[in-house]
Structure prediction request, 967 residues.
Amino acid sequence: MIKAILIFNNHGKPRLIRFYQYFTEDMQQQIIRETFHLVSKRDDNVCNFLEGGSLIGGSDYKLIYRHYATLYFVFCVDSSESELGILDLIQVFVETLDKCFENVCELDLIFHMDKVHYILQEVVMGGMVLETNMNEIVAQVEVQNRLEKSEVLNCLFCHVNSSPINREATKPAVPDQHRLRPL
Amino acid sequence: MPAPIRLRELIRTIRTARTQAEEREMIQKECAAIRSSFREEDNTYRCRNVAKLLYMHMLGYPAHFGQLECLKLIASQKFTDKRIGYLGAMLLLDERQDVHLLMTNCIKNDLNHSTQYVQGLALCTLGCMGSSEMCRDLAGEVEKLLKTSNSYLRKKAALCAVHVIRKVPELMEMFLPATKNLLSEKNHGVLHTSVVLLTEMCERSPDMLAHFRKLVPQLVRILKNLIMSGYSPEHDVSGISDPFLQVRILRLLRILGKSDDDSSEAMNDILAQVATNTETSKNVGNAILYETVLTIMDIKSESGLRVLAINILGRFLLNNDKNIRYVALTSLLKTVQTDHNAVQRHRSTIVDCLKDLDVSIKRRAMELSFALVNGNNIRGMMKELLYFLDSCDPEFKADCASGVFLAAEKYAPSKRWHIDTIMRVLTTAGSYVRDDSVPNLIQLITNSVEMHAYTVQRLYKALLDDISQQPLVQVASWCIGEYGDLLVSGQCEEEEPIQVTEDEVLDVLEGLLVSNLSAAVTRGYSLTAIMKLSTRFSGVNRIKKVVSIYGSSIDVELQQRAVEYNALFKKYDHMRPALLERMPIMEKSASNGPTEIVQTNGETEPSVVDSKHPPPVSQPANQANDLLDLLGGNDVVPVIQTTVPTKPASAGGELLDLLGDLSLTIPPMTAYNKNGLKIDFTFERANPNPNVAVITIHASNSTEADMTDFVFQAAVPKTFQLQLLSPSSNVVPALNQGTVTQVIRVLNPQKQQLRMRIKLTYTLKGSPVQDLAEVNNFPPQSWQ
Prediction:
């Protein structure tokens, strides 16, 4: 079972946190800090597995992480998951993000945190792997996004006289170093 | 009131904050705006506000006031609202908050919604944070969805079912009928989650396990199709067809085949096929191979297959990729118990991994190395391990040191080698060894009688170099105290003897007493060592002086010792030589190791964490005074250590008997011998419980007539418990032709001296005879 999925940048700022086991808010922040501390010490050419920190609980948990450009993707799992399999899963997840956001970079994750959550929901549910087929995931997410958009448009037509339409902010140009590429 | 700002604006604003305080201010302002917007019950912008709240929650700010708003969003008709509402529920709510139960009705309605995505959202939320009450209420709906033909919903329902089963195990049977045709699905997503569901059910209930064994052929077929199917673009990951599903199926096969010959038989072929055909150039191939190897090792596979598996692991060890090496070491650790010889073949590679730069690999390699040590390779392995101990990080040193001690104890080829190894560990990692290794070492040293001179010399030299490592200093001062005479007389055979005078030795010991580096315990050791030397050295005055100085020490422990030793010099000088005599060889307790049971006054408790054992040396000192009261008494002697308590070499002939001989057999004794009836007691220790003494009585009759209707009864003091088993017969034949035996079990938790009152009744030559007697002469080993 996957206990937690954390994405944070090279300075430890969280970009996405998802816990599949209950922790209080304080504990959650502590866990993020501790995990960042453990993971940032690692050299780039060592293995991607770490024994878990003491907070997230016990001897059964491992941290499996991958470092892409400025982001760390950390999955905290117990012994029922295959370590090498989870590494592949992280890769699938990142490639899915890439397909959904077109050359995804850290800024995408920052400004669209909710959308990243929705994509993750199609991959992992309740701490267990739900779907690993990238095209499936992307297709399902796109249908749901279209559903949302159509509702928003309906609303806009209803309220067209009462509130100003906010213009879609344009996405700033992304410098190369922020593009997510696997290391 | 102006429309609340969009999430994007908020994020942009927060990112411009330069300090933590600025960020906190912005967030507080926004929280206030959100709160007032919530109060206004504004439906249009609620989802925007909750999205912002979730963002702030991720940064670590409190967001609990949004919980009810999430519920309102879930109840809304719009998909957008529901989406963010359910997300908020999953992130902010948990079964610990009472609010979550209000969701149950909404989820129930949404599970039956016309839009599959809404149903999907509901299933997702239930599967993530559903409490047991919610699961109980909604299990029926989940079960219905498990049977639907919509694959999107079916796979979510399967995982939701897993969650329900985890929360409410009794509902497992409910899902059984729905699992009937789960495996005939074509959709890989559904297959994958179904296998997860089946795995969960099999792990939880052995009945289910037996039930699902019949699925093995079907699973094998699916796996075969996956391997043989060739390129399929939708499931392909780096050239392998749906590796995730393959891994899951392999895991389920492992559980199903675990102790079952038939299933294992059915799997053999496919496992061999996967093992040989999978491409290993990419990580995915290795993931499958790894899972295959684990499965082969766990089921009852044939030996050829097992050898294949271990060889694959050996190949993994040589792989350049660190991850592969890590998982190989992990799985070798799991299999080393069962397939020891096969793993031994890879020993040199494993030992090389000790030198790897990666911390995780080093740790695995160290554990595996310790598992591989045996009588044949002990010397070579120990060399590598000691080298590792020198150069490793502090976090490893404690584990490595205790591992080295255990291995050395089990397989030491010679006593000298053992002592050398221990010295090496103490000098390199002395401050990391566990506290209980000090008494263990001392006991080991006393046992190797011929090495005493060599040992004390080496320890003395080590002390001259460095007095900062406390365990080393403690052991060294104890040894110098015991064997100082050997040191001074220069008697060492193993090594070049060094010339040391008594004054030099006392200098070193006194140096320990005053040094800042010495812990309080160490000071105790050195004071006692100095005292012991008073009988071994000729110059007593210096020692008397030191002892009297410490009589006014601030440290209570030292003060007590010094005062007692002073008393020894003054009033009890006649007892001093006997009290301070050489320690006898200590008996080794049955199991030495970290999980040993420590007995404290008969109560047993695991001794792993508690390391406050006072050194054996303190026993004689503290008991010097106690003994003066104890002579002839039977008071309970507190047993604190793992080794047999060292009774001091003390005055009084009868107490010397307490030191006991080390043979584990307890000598038999005659309990009663009168009128031709002799009753002997022979003893055994009941092994699982050392507090129980098993006594067998042998009754023999030296008169000319048989003793019939022989009944033996026994009574013990209240602190004991007695169990009399049935006798072999009631007739004791005449003229010692045979004996009647009967077994008595005595439980003696407080280790008090065994006493028994026996009553004998028998008929001799027609007249009944009855006699009462007290048995007090039990050998001490029978009740210690």
User: Anything to note?
Assistant: Chain A touches chain B through 55 residues (CB under 8 Å). The two ends of chain A are 26 Å apart (CA to CA). Chain A is about 45% helix and 20% strand. Residues 2-141 of chain A form a domain with the Beta-Lactamase fold (CATH 3.30.450.60).
